[in-house]
Design brief:
The complex is a heterotrimer. Chain B is mostly helical. Chain B is built from 14 helices and two strands. In chain C, 47% of the residues lie in helices and 13% in strands. In chain C, strands 1, 2, 3, 6, 10 and 11 form a six-stranded mixed β-sheet that branches. In chain C, a hairpin with a 2-residue loop joins β4 and β5. The longest helix of chain C is centred in the first third of the chain and has 27 residues. Classes of the chains: A mainly alpha, B mainly alpha, C alpha/beta. Chains in contact: A-B, A-C, B-C. The interface between A and B is large, with 91 and 92 residues.
């Protein structure tokens, strides 16, 4: 390949222009795989499912918003909406709070103890959720429940963990809390470690007690982390499938259904795929709004 | 003065442990329950006599034998390993390149990419699995484990990219400048200079991708129907439950065995994982 | 020293992507390799009876060897829902197995994508007589055989009673009323086993601490006992013409009956799944359920003392007759199958009595035959203990075999069944959530949505 003097010159002393040009070019190439994955496997199926939700049951003709209208008209759908919000908000609140409390306590332990407790506490999050849900199901199983046995020994009657609407909701939420708290705990623990000791010392000198130190040092420093973890957890919890599918399949009488499990029930089990898609699509605006508010919160916090 | 400080500290310790113990019980009880169930005989599992919290009659290895030799468990392990490893590798390639480009190379709309990437999480698997039927089918990947290799990056790549963006952004640009002055190409800079410094973040992203791939349940349940192509989560669920007959001993044992690789993985790399995960987040 | 940034970079990326793409395409390439023999792939339910799938596979392989066909059978579990998921996926993708086994109404969801199987059904009926009423109901729709009935995995829900407990506490000897020989039945005693007598008996066994238990939740087991009960009272959700007839005196009567009966049933039934009633009776706590012999089979393994007392027999008689719920399998043949003639030959072969005889034996009595000649298989008389306990598992008396949703058009019946409308309606009344009149109204509204 002939190398001209000018090319050699350009290569040895890259001009600003050529550096910029090649940087953009390189950038596009590097981002391309991710963009392909997102467009091909997220954006396209998303729009396809919108299209699907606008079709009739046999998928032969276009019926506009009829699936959505039908859903809104019947009570069961609103039950699912209520469940999903109740499940998500309760579970995330407890996970975040417990995670924070545990992190603070763990942070005060001697280092070696911390490592062990950290490792052990991570186990629920590390086990595949579908399989640990099977374990929880066996724990709640009406005839053989270990929890009820313990309660009965303590003189309390056993609870209908999976057959009463309220208790069934408690069971699914407890399982979710069991699974998700370690994630929050680990996040906050590391977050706590990054808070400089000097801030605490300064606060102590100013005469701040434990609660005040928390309010004025710990919490503000962790704000961004709390916002991010709560946001992620809200989105993932809202879209939960494994726990409810395995523990209650949505029952009793639809009182524990989430969007994901209800979409599966209607879409696959009653053979009405377009309506199942419509149900699943309801998740998107809700999650979008939640994400918007939290991201805005983070952005404001940065200022 | 000193003794009261020490006493106060000791009180604090005691209280801390006091509060932690119930949580430990909460976190570990299901594990314990699954463990003893997997060693109990079938008769004991179904009986209502005595104390269920301990093994009352002779413990048995029959369930584990059945799992390892009577089902395609080992095939599922192989499939889970292959898929999780390949997906992790693929994810890391995609994420490192994208995160580097977004955090370092200013280009058209790059600052919105971070948020945009995150927005893909708003379209969860429970929504995507329906349109995926057609996509997976038309590619001829239905009922094969390669369908998973194709689909899993949808939920691993965005998060890993996000972690890495945070992490890469924290690396001082002076490092880049130094490398460019030496005449390195982008790839060389990335490979030789950048990645070694970002190691904790990389480890965190790798572990996240591996764990999440290992645990995925809905996709294998929906797209794979052959025992020899199935992975652990869906394999255990669909084979050890037949109609209305549940093999509880085997189910619990298999679930524990299926969790061992990830737990071991974490035990070794946990410190890096935590450093990496939060290092990126806090920036 | 100075490298060509862009070119090397592009090369790196290209090589990397090619490697990944190659890895992904490789399996496809291998699979599309040219084979000499014609191929047939079948999706079957993964039978829980140990060894049953092996026998079926062996029988099928014999045919495959004789006809030089590359046969592949995938056994899918754990339940019929997975079969439906597979079918949904394949229907969407337009490719997959050639033959697929589906339960109850599921095959009808893919009516347009299945090849009519009239010739197979005519062949079988020509040899062995007509199919029973349920099989015909779910397979012969809109004038053609959309699917063809398959006994493998098909089962029904008779009463399963602890004969010792009912003898002692309720004073009812089910072994005597339903002996292991239909000729020895006393018609008066059989007639006296009606829902009133049943309720009285349930009160007594409940007092003794061993209740009758069956789910009233969203699972098919709930449909399979609640729907027949309602039908036996004359309560019909939707009739053949498509009229919603749920709001009727008969339904009211059935709901009142349920309200009473549920007082003597465990409180957990509202959260039970398909296996809970099995566990209920195997643990020794329950004295009666309605189930196929899977509960007995597990009890035989883990609680032989309980298993030896389990008697399968007819359901109680209601004002409008005796009804029993069924969950039958069907075979469907996808239109994309390359060699339909060969697939139909396979089906004809598998449904012949010579093959069915072996398969029924391997299923240890769980599979319900759908043709009269198969009823004389000895398995139900011989299997035990207790010997003869499963004799009445197959229909010997005057029970109508139905599936929830009958007699409406099967596509409507499918919705009624899959939305568990009858058990949920009953549960709303028995938990006090609604009055019977309100519950009927609720059900009627749900049915309106189903009809349109």
């Amino acid at each position: 390949m002939a190398i001209s003097a000018s090319t050699v010159n350009r290569r040895r002393h890259p001009t600003l222009l050529s550096r910029l040009r090649s940087r953009r070019y390189a950038a596009y190439w590097m981002v391309l795989p991710l963009v392909l994955v997102v467009i091909g496997l997220v954006v396209y199926p998303f729009f396809y499912s919108i299209y699907l939700s606008l079709e009739n049951k046999k998928e032969t003709k276009f019926v506009g918003l009829r699936n959505y209208q039908r859903l809104i008209r019947y009570g069961t759908f609103w039950l699912v909406v209520g469940n999903s919000f109740r499940f998500t908000l309760t579970a995330v609140f407890f996970k975040a709070t417990l995670g924070l409390v545990l992190a603070i306590i763990l942070n005060n332990l001697p280092f070696r103890g911390q490592r062990v407790w950290r490792g052990v506490s991570l186990i629920p999050w590390v086990m595949p959720l579908a399989l640990s849900s099977l374990g929880w199901w066996w724990i709640f199983e009406p005839t053989h429940s270990a929890v009820n046995w313990v309660l009965v020994q303590c003189g309390i009657t056993g609870k209908p963990w999976l057959s009463d609407p309220t208790w069934a909701r408690v069971s699914t939420i407890v399982t979710n809390i069991w699974f998700g708290t370690p994630f929050f705990m680990i996040m906050y623990l590391a977050g706590l470690k990054s808070i400089p000791q000097s801030l605490y010392e300064a606060a102590e000198i100013d005469g701040a007690g434990a609660t005040q130190r928390f309010r004025y040092v710990t919490f503000p420093m962790l704000r961004k982390l709390i916002a991010i973890t709560v946001m992620f957890s809200t989105i993932v919890t809202f879209a939960n499938f494994d726990i409810v599918r395995i523990l209650t399949r949505g029952g009793p009488r639809y009182t524990t259904h989430l969007f994901g499990t209800y979409a599966f029930n209607i879409g696959i089990e009653t053979g009405h795929l377009p309506r199942g898609a419509a149900i699943a699509l309801f998740m998107f605006p809700v999650l979008g709004i939640a994400a918007f508010f939290i991201l805005r919160n983070i952005a404001r916090g940065e200022e | 003065m000193i003794s009261s400080l020490a006493k106060r500290k000791k009180m604090k310790m005691t209280v801390s442990y006091f509060v932690l113990i119930p949580f430990l019980v909460f976190f570990l009880f299901p594990l314990y329950w699954m463990l003893i169930t997997s060693f109990k005989t079938d008769t004991e599992i179904t009986s209502l006599k005595g104390i269920p919290l301990i093994i009352q009659s002779k413990p048995t290895l029959a369930h584990y034998k059945k799992i390892l030799f009577g089902t395609e468990f080992l095939k599922w392990v192989k499939n889970s390993l292959i898929i999780a490893a390949l997906v992790t590798f693929l994810t890391m390639v995609i994420s490192i390149l994208a995160a580097y480009a977004i955090s370092r190379l200013r280009f058209f709309a790059s600052q919105y990419f971070g948020v945009g990437v995150f927005c893909t999480y708003l379209v969860p698997p429970t929504l995507l699995f329906i349109p995926f039927f057609k996509i997976v089918g038309s590619l001829g990947l239905l009922n094969t484990k390669w369908a998973l290799l194709f689909l899993y990056p949808t939920f691993t790549a965005p998060f890993c990219t996000w972690i890495l963006i945070g992490f890469f952004s924290a690396i001082p640009r002076a490092l880049d400048e130094a490398a460019f002055v030496d005449g390195a190409s982008y790839i060389q800079m990335l490979w030789k200079v950048f990645l070694p410094v970002a190691a904790p973040g990389l480890i965190a992203a790798t572990m996240f991708a591996f764990t999440v791939s290992w645990a995925q349940f809905l996709y294998p349940l929906a797209y794979i129907y052959r025992g020899d192509q199935q992975v652990l989560t869906a394999g255990i669920y669909t084979t050890l439950i037949r109609g209305d007959v549940y093999f509880w001993g085997e189910l619990m044992g298999a679930s524990l065995l299926a969790s061992v690789p990830v737990v071991v993985f974490f035990a070794f790399l946990m410190d890096y994982y935590i450093a990496g995960l939060t290092g990126g987040m806090l920036r | 020293m100075a490298k060509i940034t862009r070119r090397k970079f592009i090369k790196d990326v290209a090589v990397g992507s090619a490697a990944v793409a190659g890895a992904m395409a490789a399996p496809g390439v291998v699979r599309k390799a040219y084979t000499q023999k014609p191929k047939l792939s079948v999706a079957m339910w993964n039978h829980w009876v140990p060894g049953a799938t092996d026998v079926l596979k062996a029988v099928a392989d014999e045919w495959a060897k004789k006809n030089k066909v590359d046969l592949r059978i995938d056994f899918i579990g754990p339940s019929s829902t997975e079969m439906l998921t597979v079918a949904s996926a394949e229907a969407r993708a337009g490719t997959g197995h050639d033959i697929i086994a589906l339960t109850t109404f599921d095959g009808l969801f893919f009516m347009d994508k299945f090849e009519p199987l009239d010739d197979v059904a005519d062949y079988v009926q020509g040899k062995y007589g007509k199919y029973d009423e349920v099989s015909t109901y779910i397979s012969h729709v809109d004038g053609r055989w959309v699917t063809v009935p398959s006994p493998t995995g098909s089962h029904s829900y008779p009463m399963v009673t602890r004969k010792d407990m009912w003898r002692e506490y309720a004073g009812i000897d089910v072994e005597d009323i339903f002996p292991p020989d239909v000729r020895k039945r006393d018609p008066k005693k059989v007639d006296a086993y009606n829902y009133d007598a049943f309720l009285e008996a349930c009160k007594k066994v409940a007092k003794a601490g061993h209740m009758y238990g069956n789910p009233l939740s969203e699972c098919s087991d709930a449909d399979d006992w609640a729907c027949p009960l309602f039908l036996s009272f004359g309560s019909i959700p939707v009739d053949e013409k498509g009229n919603i007839t749920i709001e009727s005196d008969e339904t009211l009567e059935a709901l009142e009956y349920m309200k009473e009966l549920a007082q003597y049933m465990p409180k957990e039934i509202y959260g039970w799944d398909d296996a809970s009633n099995n566990r209920w009776i195997i643990s020794g706590k329950g004295s009666a359920i309605q189930n196929p012999p899977s509960a007995w089979a597990v009890a035989k393994r883990t609680r032989p003392d309980v298993a030896a007392q389990l008697w399968h027999h007819d359901t109680p008689r209601g004002p409008k007759g005796r009804f029993r719920g069924c969950l039958f399998f069907t075979y469907g043949l996808w239109k994309w199958c390359k060699d339909k003639k060969m697939a139909k030959e396979y089906l004809k072969y598998m449904l012949e009595s010579a093959q069915q005889w072996k398969i029924l034996a391997a299923a240890q009595g769980y599979d319900m035959p759908q043709l009269k000649p198969m009823y004389s298989h000895p398995v139900w008389e011989e299997i035990g203990p207790p010997k003869g306990g499963q004799y009445n598992y197959i229909r010997r008396g005057d029970e109508h075999l139905i599936v929830g949703g009958w007699p409406a058009h099967p596509l409507i019946g499918a919705q009624i069944y899959r939305k568990y409308l009858i058990p949920v309606m009953a549960a709303k009344v028995t938990t006090g959530e609604m009055t019977p009149k309100e519950a009927m109204k609720w059900c009627a509204r749900e049915l309106e949505e189903v009809i349109e």
